[in-house]
Amino acid sequence: MRRDEIADLAAFVVVAEERSFTKAAARLGMAQSALSQIVRRTEERLGVRLLSRTTRSVAPTEAGERLMATLAPMLHDLDAAVASLGELRARPSGTIRITTVEHAAKTIIVPTMRRLLPDNPNITVELTVDYGLSDVVADRFDAGVRLGGEMAKDMIAVRIGPDIPMAIIGAPDYFRTHAAPNSPGQLIDHRAINLRLPTSGTLNRWRLMRGGRETRVRVDGPLVFNTIDLILDAALDGHGLAYLPLDQVQRHLDDGRLVRVLDKFTPDLPGYHLYYPHRRHASSAFTLLVETLRFRG
């Protein structure tokens, strides 16, 4: 394959990722008309349509998706490999994009940045909070953070935090009209404030112990959110029970604004792990981040 054909394929990948000729042209630093000609030339050479175009959107066709799935990881690894050469003569640098859940960002990643970034001013860490199980390759993340056991099997996983104590809590006002449950079965009589999981579209099920075995329980209720901060606020307002990390509610338990129930039935969750593809080219900045985050408890 000639070099100009490789360059054309790389340009197609950028358009497919951005789903916009305008954004792709800006990213590549070229005229939109020239980019459009490159894509048309590539389609003619391959004999298949790679992009569906309307006046408002651009999206890969089935053939385009298949080509992109193969090319995009290769091109991103090539970019990382070239960028890493500069690190032989400079301090660790570059942007590291991580998809994470809110709790991990607050309790692990952001505190770790206080140790990492002051001595490494050329590193930028970009966090995207998302409860969906993002495809770190397709979505162009360098790594993701999820609970142990939630990563795809083809990923490298590094533990970055201890197991997570959980708590079922409610406000004193709520318990004035609802008797505190003494067993998981009594949750059927209670109202819950729930977390919506975007990937499945379902509500987060509470992990509880029944008869010595862990089970996942759904508790219905009047409010559903996609962030634990709003769930906590609703619990403090007395709207129902909530299932949250203990460290996020401890101060409210200490000052009496919340009451914990079913603590002996609420197991810890497996700790957070950083995960990334086996084939990812590890820059010195990324390696430094991994080692700084690595859990050594």
How would you describe this structure in keywords?
single chain, 297 residues, alpha/beta, Arc Repressor Mutant, subunit A, D-Maltodextrin-Binding Protein, domain 2, 5-stranded mixed sheet, 3-stranded antiparallel sheet, 9 helices, 37% helix, 22% strand, elongated
Short description:
The chain has 297 residues and is of the alpha/beta class. The protein has three domains: 3-71, Arc Repressor Mutant, subunit A (Orthogonal Bundle); 90-159 and 271-293, Periplasmic binding protein-like II (D-Maltodextrin-Binding Protein, domain 2); 166-265, D-Maltodextrin-Binding Protein, domain 2 (3-Layer(aba) Sandwich). It is 37% helix and 22% strand.
What would you note in describing this structure?
It is a single chain. The chain is an alpha/beta fold and 297 residues long. The chain folds into three domains: 3-71, Arc Repressor Mutant, subunit A (Orthogonal Bundle); 90-159 and 271-293, D-Maltodextrin-Binding Protein, domain 2; 166-265, D-Maltodextrin-Binding Protein, domain 2, CATH 3.40.190. Helix content is 37%, strand content 22%. The chain has nine helices and 14 strands. The longest helix is centred in the N-terminal third of the chain and has 24 residues, at 62-85. The protein starts with a helix and ends with a helix.
For the biggest sheet, the summary is:
5 strands, mixed
Number of domains: 3
Mean pLDDT comes to: 89
Radius of gyration: 24 Å
Number of helices: 9
Q: According to CATH, what is the class of the largest domain?
A: Alpha Beta
Strand content: 15-25%
What gross morphology would you assign?
elongated
What is the CATH fold-level name of the largest domain? Answer: D-Maltodextrin-Binding Protein, domain 2
The assigned CATH architecture of the largest domain is 3-Layer(aba) Sandwich
How are helices and strands ordered from N to C?
HHHEEHEHEEEEHEEEEHEHEEH
Strand order of the largest sheet: 4-3-5-14-6
Query: Are there runs of 5+ residues with pLDDT below 50, and where?
Result: none
Residue share in helix: 25-40%
InterPro entries: LysR-type_TF_proteobact-type (IPR058163), LysR_HTH_N (IPR000847), LysR_subst-bd (IPR005119), WH-like_DNA-bd_sf (IPR036388), WH_DNA-bd_sf (IPR036390)
Family: Belongs to the LysR transcriptional regulatory family.
GO molecular function: DNA-binding transcription factor activity; sequence-specific DNA binding
Domain HTH lysR-type: 4-61
